[in-house]
Amino acid sequence: MIHVKQLQKSYGSAHILRGIDCDIAESEVVCVIGPSGSGKSTFLRCLNGLEEASDGEILVDGVMVNDPAIDLNAMRAGVGMVFQRFNLFPHMSVLENLIMAPMQVKKMSRKDAVVVAEKLLLKVGLLDKIDAFPNQLSGGQQQRVAIARALAMEPKVMLFDEPTSALDPELVGEVLTVMKALAEEGMTMVVVTHEMGFAREVSDRVFFIDQGVIMEQGPPQQVLGAPHNERTRDFLRKVLL
Predict the structure, then answer these.
(1) What's the CA gap between 170 and 238, in Å, rounded?
(2) What is the pLDDT of residues 173-227, one digit of tens each?
(3) Smallest Cα–Cα separation from 84: which of 139, 165, 140, 149?
(4) Model pTM?
(5) CA distance 32 to 39
């Protein structure tokens, strides 16, 4: 589903990604861990063209993401993205947040878009909030709406950029529950996260990124439980205290 070869990303003289190589299969869940500033979010944003790669190649479902001739909006319709800060439109109700992209990008009728929105809000446990506005919701509820909004485009891949880092601790569980359900349904997912318990329980593989490269990757029980790389061990000693 995702193929990345020698992905490089620089901002001026700052070399953020220094040669990322990976393949992610359909229905696979990959959790990406690593210290702040290591390139995790940049890697994720390159996967759907939010950041332009400086070099290398990225294919998602057979489409070359960093081809200058590509229709990025059409490509992104198949790649859902959930951010740290929800990014809901504050002046729109929950329903309007969900139906706007399917109507504008996929040319879906309002009636059909509303049916999809209702199903997805039921899925994330928020059908009763369909007419609410974002400022009337908790952080956890806003993030679940953001997940539903991404799913409304029927993506083949879901990207999550630290989706629980902006939440109060007691709200984290409700978002992770929705993400676990998606994983169980076979959604291909790449999740940048600090939630090691989630990574251990849900992921098929864990990538440890530091200094712009994948320093270690493998099943969660190996990477998190018996890492081979000394840098991975040092990182985990600090975060698993």
Answers:
(1) 22
(2) 999 999 999 999 999 999 999 999 999 999 999 999 999 999 999 999 999 999 9
(3) 165
(4) 0.95
(5) 10
Phi and psi torsions of 73, nearest 5° = -65, -40
Q: What is the DSSP letter of 224?
A: T
Q: Which residues of 31-63 are buried (b: 16+ CB within 10 A; e: fewer)?
A: bbbbbeebbbbbbbbbbbbbbebeebebbbbee
Measured between alpha carbons, how far is 37 from 12 in angstroms, rounded to an integer? 16
Number of CB atoms found within 10 A of residue 186's CB:
11
- How crowded is residue 69: how many other Cβ atoms within 10 Å of its Cβ? 5
Of 85, 47, 240, 70, which is closest to residue 165 (Cα–Cα)? Answer: 85
* 199 CA to centre of own chain: 13
Distance CA 203, CA 222 (A): 12
Q: By the 8 A CB rule, do 172 and 140 touch?
A: yes
b/e burial code for range 9-23 (CB count within 10 A of at least 16 → b):
beeeeeebbeebebe
The widest CA-to-CA distance across the chain, in whole angstroms, is 55
Q: Which H helix or E strand runs over 215?
A: strand 213-218
Extract the residue ranges of the chain whose pLDDT is less than 70.
241
Strand partners, 10: 15
Angle between helix 139-151 and 94-104 (nearest 10) = 20
